[in-house]
Amino acid sequence: xxxxxxxxxxxxxxxxxxxxxxxxxxxxxxxxxxxxxxxxxxxxxxxxxxxxxxxxxxxxxxxxxxxxxxxxxxxxxxxxxxxxxxxxxxxxxxxxxxxxxxxxxxxxxxxxxxxxxxxxxxxxxxxxxxxxxxxx
Length: 136
Hints:
Layout: H1 9-30, E1 32-41, E2 46-54, H2 64-75, E3 85-88, E4 92-99, E5 108-112, E6 118-121, H3 123-127, E7 130-131
Antiparallel strand pairs: 1-2, 3-4, 3-7, 4-5, 5-6
């Protein structure tokens, strides 16, 4: 059980663990998935970001970014799915990570598999990424 006189980084880690335990019990009963996000704090007050998501009919929890990627990839005629491996001329082996709808110029996010570096690209650049089997 969390007890503290003031908030510190160390005791907020304990609070996060306690919150995760309580929320996982609630998830088992209700089916609502919780994610404890950033915690900002002062000595007497802490602000905690809590995100709740519902699973679909198959029991899979999908993020808003994944749903946006599916919708816009279809509209932009992108042949790869989310987290599917592809080949870029300049980056080599990459995979799509997500779609940021607020980024008008470069909404597609890819990750270079060899280094783990992430890059943003526009629809034209994303369309040019081919599935791994097509390029040899």
